[in-house]
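Input record, target 12 of the design panel.
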């Protein structure tokens, strides 16, 4: 992202690159607002007219949206918008949805093993504990279980710190919602998923990226197989 911004050889482009750094450092996502103009100009130690020019550069590139009277907001990249539209339109089949998860989540698990903080690990552990409570309850709240399942995986992706993946987290969440809804309710899947989640977290806690990636691949492959088999049964009935 920075390379594209800094290609413009002027002061405004340098300020634009600084704004992008703030977005990434603060882990702002699509829809989040940037600091007010005055505060942002003071933070960057630049004039407000120069800052406005920089923000217009970013808006032209689709990185931010300036809403008069409201402020400046992080935009969802065009590629993410197109992916979201395709997911919502359900133009992707189950195999493609699981392919998308595999491409993003397997390397993310490997990276997370070297980057996770104590707070990240606490968040993952808390999420698994919440999932355990829900899965032990009767009746099982599958909708909430699905939300927490997605949160577990999305947290790992976020820990990885890959800028492109972080920019498309919202789309990945939609992908996960569609790919999970056909698996969590199936017999035995909760227990298998729970065991694999524990193994993934243990590998990340131990800093073993290769093992984390291996189990994540196994986890997604198992969910894919279960979902496809269920889809075949439904099509025959």
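The sequence produced for target 12 reads:
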């Amino acid at each position: 992202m920075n390379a594209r911004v800094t290609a413009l050889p002027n002061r405004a482009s340098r300020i634009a690159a600084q704004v992008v750094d703030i977005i990434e450092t603060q882990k702002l996502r699509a829809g989040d607002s940037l600091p007010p103009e005055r505060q942002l100009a003071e933070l960057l130690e630049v004039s407000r007219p120069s800052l406005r020019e920089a923000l217009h550069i970013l808006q032209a590139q689709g990185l931010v949206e300036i809403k008069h009277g409201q402020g400046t907001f992080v935009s969802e990249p065009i590629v993410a918008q197109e992916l979201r539209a395709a997911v919502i339109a359900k133009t992707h089949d189950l195999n493609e949805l699981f392919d998308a998860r595999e491409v993003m989540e397997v390397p993310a698990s490997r990276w997370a093993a070297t980057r996770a903080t104590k707070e990240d690990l606490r968040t993952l552990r808390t999420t698994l504990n919440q999932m355990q409570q829900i899965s032990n309850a009767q009746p099982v709240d599958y909708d909430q279980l699905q939300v927490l399942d997605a949160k577990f995986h999305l947290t790992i992706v976020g820990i990885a710190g890959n800028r492109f993946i972080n920019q498309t987290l919202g789309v990945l969440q939609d992908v996960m919602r569609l790919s999970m809804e056909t698996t969590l309710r199936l017999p035995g899947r909760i227990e298998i998923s729970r065991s694999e989640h524990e193994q993934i977290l243990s590998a990340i806690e131990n800093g073993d990226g290769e093992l984390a990636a291996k189990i994540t691949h196994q986890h997604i492959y198992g969910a894919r197989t279960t979902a496809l088999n269920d889809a075949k049964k439904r099509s025959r009935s």
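Residues 1-9 have pLDDT under 50 and may be disordered.
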